[in-house]
Amino acid sequence: MGCRINSPAVGYLSGQPLFAGVHHRPSPTFPLGATLNLSLCSTLHFSQKLCNNGRRNSRCFSINAQTSMEQMPVTEGRMLVFVPPHPLIKHWVSILRNEHTPSPVFRSAMGELGRLLIYEASRDWLPTVTGEIQSPMGVAAVEFVDPREPVAIVPILRAGLALAEHASSILPATKTYHLGMSRDEETLQPYLYLNKLPEKFTDESRVIILDPMLATGGTIVAALDIIKKLGVDNSQIKVVCAVAAPPALRKLSENFQGIHVYAGIIDPDVNEKGFIIPGFGDAGDRSFGT
């Protein structure tokens, strides 16, 4: 069965609307929801008052997993954004940042980052079965991931293929369904060109959507709209991305309360062409050398 996250949240001391973070596993999170008056400026900087070393100091900051925060309760049903502060995640994000990273290395780095984020996304979420088995030295109590309920992996083509490459090496039972979505470069609106989703998901279905770049939010919102119509509850959906930006997170928080997003990093801005700044560039082109 799915497991509800019961973790303390932490918030930045500020009179401004804020993200909050959760130290759970110990991934910091940023809950967003309709009850939160979210205001994101284009640079994703907030005014904060730090209480480090007992002193109060006002300055601007970017979201940072290492920022000192004060505990506050999590509001049930908020969208949560997890940014795991693991050094391997930072390493692969840095490889993806580099404009000189060759296409094969870029694609491999995207796959490794996806592996780590899927691991984080599946924690406390997979259905399990318990029992006893005979080990070489005696009887042992055991717990397995239930193979009768495979996780639905939904990469958004093209770039989502690289992010989802190692999903089956992390999860014991999966089914992969492809969604092909592209974005009009003038209007920045998405359009669907391939839909290999099932006609209906079961009530127990768990779905992980993989889209490397959450920039303007148009593509991920369109994908979620399609999946939601197939009967999946928000609590049964995880979104995995390499990098996210404020416009996409704002749209998700407004439309999909209870969704959990797992990101390698959150970047501050999106330019007029819909690219995340500093971002990774075009993840699809860089993954496949086109």
TrEMBL record:
- GO molecular function per UniProt: GTP binding; uracil phosphoribosyltransferase activity
The UniProt entry, under SUPFAM superfamilies, shows: PRTase-like
Q: In which pathway does it act?
A: Pyrimidine metabolism; UMP biosynthesis via salvage pathway; UMP from uracil: step 1/1
Give cofactor(s), names only.
Mg(2+)
* Endpoints of the signal sequence: none
Per the record, GO CC terms?
A: cytoplasm
The record places domain Phosphoribosyltransferase at 83-290
Q: What are the coiled-coil residue ranges?
A: none
Is the Lipid biosynthesis keyword given for this protein? no
Catalytic activity, EC: 2.4.2.9
Question: Which keywords label this protein?
Answer: Allosteric enzyme, Glycosyltransferase, GTP-binding, Nucleotide-binding, Transferase
Q: Which GO terms describe its biological process?
A: uracil salvage
The cross-references to Pfam families, in alphabetical order and at most eight, read: UPRTase
Q: Which family does this protein fall into? A: Belongs to the UPRTase family.
Protein name per the record: uracil phosphoribosyltransferase
Gene source species: Heracleum sosnowskyi
Q: What is the phylogenetic placement of the source species in the record?
A: Eukaryota, Viridiplantae, Streptophyta, Embryophyta, Tracheophyta
